[in-house]
């Protein structure tokens, strides 16, 4: 039996993220690496895609507009038990990392990350730890990213963000008015 001409040639990858620019950039980068990429922007669409394409690999954001990305992780693993799923998040903490692994993820990466780190996590085998990044973010950049994330979570409300970060509102305003530190 012959395969159709348009059959996927590379491993299947499902990318689920509600951040459209990130989803598009990641899909393009992974297609260049030979993956057959399907994208979804919500839990519902991710679960539907997982059931229909049964991907070998998946990358899923933890917090999606319509729910928790761990539901997608479980759907991917149910559709294909040998699937390797990496969870991305801007809200990293130990509890969510443990929950992601219990749901079936093989790794848990904090945003921002790049396609190289994601591919390394997807293809890592055994108990071998991934290599540390060549040029990790500076401490100032990590702090700035965290503040920006909390600011967005608080719907860009400076007073609420300052309260949650336990910092003075004017100090926060000065930080928000500066450009991001260089890595």
TrEMBL record:
GO terms for MF: sequence-specific DNA binding
SMART domains: REC
Biological process per Gene Ontology, one example term: phosphorelay signal transduction system
Transmembrane segments: none
InterPro entries associated with the record: ActR_PrrA_rreg, Bact_response_regulator, CheY-like_superfamily, HTH_Fis, Sig_transdc_resp-reg_receiver
Domain Response regulatory per the UniProt entry, residue ranges: 12-126
Database matches in Gene3D superfamilies: 3.40.50.2300, Homeodomain-like
This protein's record includes keyword Phosphoprotein: yes
Record-listed 4-aspartylphosphate modification sites: 61
Keywords: Phosphoprotein
Source species, domain of life: Bacteria
Protein name as annotated: Two-component system response regulator RegA
């Amino acid at each position: 039996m012959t395969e159709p001409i348009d059959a996927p040639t590379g491993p299947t990858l499902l990318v689920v993220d509600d951040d459209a620019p990130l989803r598009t950039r990641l899909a393009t980068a992974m297609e260049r690496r030979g993956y057959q990429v399907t994208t979804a922007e919500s839990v519902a669409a991710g679960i539907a895609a997982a059931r229909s394409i049964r991907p070998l690999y998946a990358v899923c954001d933890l917090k999606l507009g319509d729910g928790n990305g761990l539901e997608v992780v479980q759907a991917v693993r149910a559709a294909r038990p040998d699937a390797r799923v990496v969870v991305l998040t801007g809200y990293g903490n130990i509890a969510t990392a443990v929950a992601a692994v219990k749901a079936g993820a093989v790794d848990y990466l904090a945003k921002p990350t790049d396609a190289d780190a994601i591919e390394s996590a997807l293809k890592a085998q055994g108990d071998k730890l991934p290599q540390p990044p060549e040029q990790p973010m500076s401490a100032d950049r990590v702090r700035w990213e965290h503040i920006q994330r909390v600011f967005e979570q608080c719907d860009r409300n400076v007073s609420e963000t300052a309260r949650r970060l336990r910092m003075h509102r004017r100090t926060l305003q000065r930080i928000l008015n500066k450009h991001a530190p260089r890595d």
